[in-house]
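Let us practice reading a record.
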Amino acid sequence: MMQKFFSPAILTVFLFTSIETVAQNSNVKAPIELPANFQYPNGIARSSKGMLYVGSVTSGQILRINSQGKSETFFPGSSEIFAANSLRLDEQREILWGASSDFLGIKNSKGETVRRPHRIFAIDTRTGKVLRVIQMPDSGFGNDIALDDNGGVYLTDSSRPRIHYLAPGTSKLQVWAENPLFNSKQIGLAGIARRPDGVVIVGLFSTGELFKITPQPFGVAVEKISLTRKLENPDGMQFAPDGKLLVTEGSVTSGNGRLLSIDVLSPTNTPRSIETIAANMESPVNLTVAGNDVLVTESRIRHRLLPGQEKNVPSRFFIRRFNLRK
C-alpha cells in the first residue's frame, strides 16, 4: 500500500495519467464489482472452497464473497482495526490475519493529521470474533503478510528495514530479518511471498527492487535479485503454481498498474526477465492465487493523495481476475 511520500508534481502525473481499462487479452476474466458501500479494496485472501475475503484500506471493513458471488460484511471495522491493507487466511486454524495501517490518518482537535499506531490482527473466520490485535514495535509500519505451515506470521515493515515474525501462540513480534539493503528514504518493504521451503521474497516499494531471503542455521542470507528493469512500485506478491513470482506493480508515476510474473528462483547468471500478464490497472495493490486464477485488488485510491481531490471518489471498485493459462 502507499503513503503520502510523493511530491505534488509526481502525484499530479499519477492522477491524470490514469488508465481505467485493464489490458484486453485471452487471460482476462470478468471482474468482480464490489458493493456500492465498499471502497478502496486492498487486502485479499481466498479459501480452498472459493470463499473470498476483501479488506478496505480506509475503513477496516472486510467483505466475504462466496463462490456464487454473493457478498456480506464479515467484519465492519472498529476503533482497533481501522484498515485491512493485507489479509492472509490460515485455513487450517480458521484464522484470518490482517495488517491495519493508518494510511490516511485522522484529524485531531487542532485539525492536524495524526496517525494511529499500526498493528496486525487475527479474526476467527467462524464467528468474526477478534482474537488478537498486536501493535507494531518501534513505531513500525506493518504492510504485508505471509504465513507458514505452523501458523507463524511474517510481516514486512515499510518504515524500518525489517521483516517481523510472530511465532504461533505468541503475542510479540520478533525481528526475523534486518538488513541495510532494506533501507529506503520513502516507502520501504511492502510485498512478501514465502515458499513452503522457507525461502522468502520481498520488494522495496519506492526503489523497485526485489530481495531473496534464505533461512540459514544461524540467521538468514539476503541477496538482491537482478532484474532486466526496476519495478515501478512492487506491492502485493504470491507464488504461482509454476513457481514463478506474481507481483502487482502499483506504478505511481506512470499510472499503468500491472500484474507481473517473474521467475525469481531458477538458477541463472543473467538478469531475470519480467512478463506482463495484465496492464492498465489503477493502483493494483494486492492479490491472491487460486490454482491458475489470480485475483487482484484495484484500489483506485490515487485521488486521496492529492490536496483538493479527496472528494473525487470513484463510483465503482473491482476485484480484477486473470487466468495464467496461455
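A brief commentary: Confidence is low (pLDDT under 50) at residues 2-24.
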